[in-house]
Amino acid sequence: MSTFEDHRTLLTGVAYRILGSMADAEDVVQEAWLRWSGVDETIVADPKAYLIRITSRLAIDRLRWVKSRRESYVGPWLPEPISTTPDVAEHAELADSVELALLVVLETLSPLERAVFVLREAFDMPFSEIAEVIGRAEPATRQLARRARDHVQEKRPRFDADLGERRRITERFLHASTSGDLDGLIGLLSSEVTLVSDGGGKARSPLRALTGAENVTRFLVSITTPEGIAKFMASIGVGDFATMSYGLANVNGAPAIVISAAGRVVTVISLLITDGKIDTIYLLANPEKIGHLDVPS
Known about the structure:
Elements: H1 2-19, H2 22-36, H3 47-70, H4 92-96, H5 100-106, H6 111-122, H7 127-134, H8 138-155, H9 163-179, H10 182-188, E1 189-198, E2 210-211, H11 213-224, H12 226-235, E3 245-251, E4 254-261, E5 264-274, E6 277-284, H13 287-290
Parallel strand pairs: 1-6
Antiparallel strand pairs: 1-2, 3-4, 4-5, 5-6
Helix pairs in contact: 1-2, 1-3, 2-3, 3-7, 6-7, 6-8, 7-8, 9-10
């Protein structure tokens, strides 16, 4: 099975971008491995293309299934974050394709549109091969790609900060939030800032997006008080918050705040910055989505 293992990372990347969930992606890749194990490799002219085709089809089928589950999800649904190495920025097209902001927009596409967008935009597959993956004629595939690309360009948040600026502002946001610097915190937020928090009904979290600097600041202040921290920690089953620590890590191709307690990650915060101000905050607290992440050293 060395052929499959040679492509496992690629296949996992394809599945994750289509599904927005590493757990689902790993299940899909495992199913692809089971199918590959029954194939006579000697008759497969291009194993890489063959495996991408199998994995993509399985991911599309799984996405159709999980979309119905996400409709009944408690509160906002955000993609499952993944750890990325600092040098991911060297491969800009791949780094961009795992950005949380993009994955959030991809969630609004149909399964076929999403698969076509990922295979074309992130992995530069020819339309002829994508058409074979989704079982459509090439002209119809091109139309799906155009529709998906137009939708993404319209809905994707605009952020113009490079990774260095994002890291500096993320560090300032972390310091202001944890030190009680209310003026410093307000100064970092745009007037129309939006906070989207995903607790999945398993962690204390707003059940709808918060908008406006005043509302977002009020919430951030409430969760950084001793009482607010205690309530949050109780909601995820951690009684002793004296072990809480804060750090920065590369998550989905960008710097993010990672909060841990009792040896496990309990919150991930990712910021989008435009014109030097934070205009979107993604806060992930669902333990099922972040439990696989490493605690920053």
